[in-house]
Model the fold of this input.
Amino acid sequence: MIAYLARRVLYAIPILLGVNLFTFALFFVANSPDDMARLQLGIKRVTPEAIAIWKHAHGYDKPLFYNGADQGLQRFSDTIFFEKSASMFAFDFGRADDGRDIAREIRMRAGPSLEIALPSFVIGMMTNITFALLMAFFRATLLDMWGVVLCVAAMSISGLFYIIGGQFLVAKLWHWVPISGFESGLSSLKFVILPVAIGVVSGIGGGARWYRTLFLEEIGRDYVRTARSKGISELAVLFRHVARNGLIPILTGAVVIIPSLFIGSLILESFFGIPGLGSYTLDAINSQDFAVVRSMVFIGSLLNILGLMLTDISYTVADPRIRLQ
Done:
C-alpha cells in the first residue's frame, strides 16, 4: 500500500506540471500580457506607458519561458512561468490582478462552498440510494416504471430551470428564504437551504437511475438466488445482500467526488450570490484574471488526483479481494 501511494504521488508531479504548462500556454494564446493590461486598465486609460507600468507592477514584463538577458539558471527562473506557475507547487499562489492575496481568498471562500456542496452531496446520495432501492424492490411494477419515467424527465430538464424556478417560487413568490446573499454563522442556514435543496433535486434523476441499474444487476447474481432459495425474505435479500454489494461501486464513485466538493458549484454560487470558490473562479474567468484561474485549475487537478487515489484505497476497504500492488 505504501509503495503504491508513493508511486501515485510521483506520477502526480508530471501530471500537475503538464496541466500547469497547458493552462499557462492556453491562457497566453488567448490573451497576451498587453491584452490583460488593456482589460484591467479600461479603454479610456490605455496608453503604452500605462500598459508598461501595469505589466511591471504585476510581473508580466518578463519573458514567458526563457529570459536570454540573464545568466545561468536565471534564464529560466526570471520568467513569467516560473514566478507565476511553478511557485504553485509550493502553494504560493501569489496575488490576483486586483492585488488581493489568492491564498487568503481561497481560505475565506472554502467555507461557503462546503456549506452548499457537502450537504448537497450527503443528502443527495442518501435520497438517490433510497429511491433506487425502492424502484429495485418494486421492479417491473407501475411504481418502478413511473419512477424511471420521472428520473428520465428530471435528467432532461436543465439545471437552470430548477434554479430559476426555485428562486421564483420559494424566494420571490412565497418569501420563505432570501433570493440571494450570504451571512456567516447560523444565519447562513437561510441562505444555503434553497441552493442545497435545488442541488439535491436536480441530481435525483441521474443518480437514482444509475443506482437502480447497479442494484438490478446485483439482483440477478447467483448469490441472490441462493439466498432466496434459503427462504430469506425479498426485503432482507435486498438490504442484507444486494444493497451491501451494490454500494461498492457507489462508494468508489462517491469517494472520487469528495475532494472536488472543495471547489464548489459555479452555477449555484453565481445565481445565489454565495461568496464561494465556484463564483470566485467564474468571476476570474469573466475578468480574465489569469492568476486566479491558474490557481483554481491547479487546485482542481490536485484534488482530482487525490480523489483517484482515495478511490483505489476505498476499493480495498470495501472489497477485501482487491489488493493494491
Notes: The mean pLDDT is 83. The chain is about 70% helix and 0% strand. Residues 108-318 form a domain with the MetI-like fold fold (CATH 1.10.3720.10). The CA atoms of residues 255 and 303 lie 11 Å apart.
